Amino acid sequence: MNQPRIDFKIYPSLLDKFQEFLDYQIAAEELWNKVSEKAKEQGQYPDAEVGDYILTPDEMADKLEQELIDTINRVPHEPWEAADKGTCFNEVVDMILADRECATEDMEVEMGEDTITARYHGFTFTYDRAFCEEVAQGLAGSVSQLFTKATIETKAGTVELYGYIDEYRLNQVIDLKTTGSYDFLKFERKWQRHIYPYCLVESGHEVEGFEYRVIKWKGGTKTQPALSGEVIPEYYTYNHEESTEALRAMLEQFIWWLNSRREQITDTKIFAADEQAAAPATVEVATDVDSDFIIGEQFSYLPNNLGRYATMEEAMQTLAKAGIFATAEGTGATRALSDEELQELRTSITDIVENERIDAANEVAAALAFEKRMKAEIKRREEQAQAALVEIDERIMEKAQMIKDNRKSVSLAGTDTIRVSVSDKNLYYHLEDGTLVLAYVGYASNDDMSGLFFQAEVNEKSMRDLFGIEDFKKEKTFDVVKVADMAEEELIGRQIICDPQRIEFEDFLDEDSGTVHTTKRTVSCGLKKLPVKITKKLLQTIKDGGFQTILIAKSDKED
Questions:
Q1: Running DSSP on this structure, what letter comes out for residue 183?
Q2: 43 in the Ramachandran plot: left (φ > 0), alpha (ψ -120 to 50) or beta?
Q3: What is the spatial distance between Cα 162 and Cα 542, in angstroms, rounded to a whole number?
Q4: C-alpha–C-alpha distance, residues 418 and 294, integer Å
Q5: pLDDT tens column, 255-289
Q6: Cα 196 to Cα 150: distance, rounded to the nearest angstrom
Q7: Distance between CA atoms of residues 306 and 458, nearest Å
Q8: What's the whole-model pTM score?
Q9: In this structure, what DSSP letter does residue 33 have?
């Protein structure tokens, strides 16, 4: 039986790193990305104030993307004490479970009566032996460090997922995690909980659930040097169908990114079939909207700075198998070919080669044989046959290029709308006398209006460079106004083109730990159809909701 062709080989921590990159805006808001009082006391960040961000969202995205590339390329990095503390603890637990010696290279473990000491990468960690044995006892009967692998089919090719499971017991997968602090569902966006059970089920095993068994450290201080901790279970019931769908969607995003950064990948083990690059993610017309297209990060040939602003989550939910890369009529717009169209092209090439080209070649031969009797006729017929060969070869090459590019020309009507996804905003354009005009904004946070014009310009530049669109209405087609600065009669009757939004912060108490946490949420006005005319009632709703900034279409006549 033939083994399936493997296009990519991917392990869980790569998807974790990619998830961190996708979540760069969340990372930019974390406390560790803010200047602390301690840092200021130590003379760090002299030009910043306490609470200022250390990295901007763009800088955070660059940092996380480079870390992802370094992970793929297996770039050596400085030892990280927190990570090595967890690695040593896992090894100690497995040693107790299996009653064996240390098996990790360059690690030394000494079993004392009350403590266990591990030395690794220049660090020394002392663990409370009773606590280690308690954790090991809770894993009794487990199969430790179980290697598993399985394949999954995606639109970008066949992926082999693989890795080592910490513990497998009674149809449960257990992954040990260590941390200095813990928030509820801290590891929800990690991918071990999907990959390991998927591989086991595909290999014929049963899996009912996945548990991150989290060790929240205690000790490690001068007064309490031995490390112990609190064991916190974070449990997820496993659903094979849901995990398969989630994995497939995530892998297709990751492979698109991987192909777009291919020149930066020096360790090519991840490309299992390097001779044939995986097809980029494609898009299609949304099923519920006529001629509604999205231009965004799913284009593998978009410039890097544009890709950062695209909303992959929305795009991957909205788009499906065969898609259209859309622009205006006459600008060389393209869409992906379906499997049926690809096969039809291959068949047509074969027919041309086997029939038309052979007939034309026979004409050439017949013309040459006729040379003695009709030299003039020979020349005419030879040129005619050679011209037919050239035309046929051009047709073959054109169809072959379409297969290679996986694209086919498509046109839009004057009534079509193009939706451009930018960060968490959707900019809607329509054709107006042959010119693309920004019609309205599907979503825009009030605290980031200034970036809207720049992001629109980035998308316009990409469509101009990549798709040949030249005509854009250069002046702004909407105004950003403060509600408090405008008289009521100046606003009523104007067209609002964006659902107003604002940010709220809310504190809540974690009753288990007694810690107060702050959450950030976005509150919207709830407008569904845009643009919409501002009435007195709507204006009052905007004011009552605390929405300070709105976007309105420019007046036909400026004052």
A1: -
A2: left
A3: 52
A4: 6
A5: 999 988 888 998 888 988 764 443 443 333 333 33
A6: 9
A7: 7
A8: 0.50
A9: G
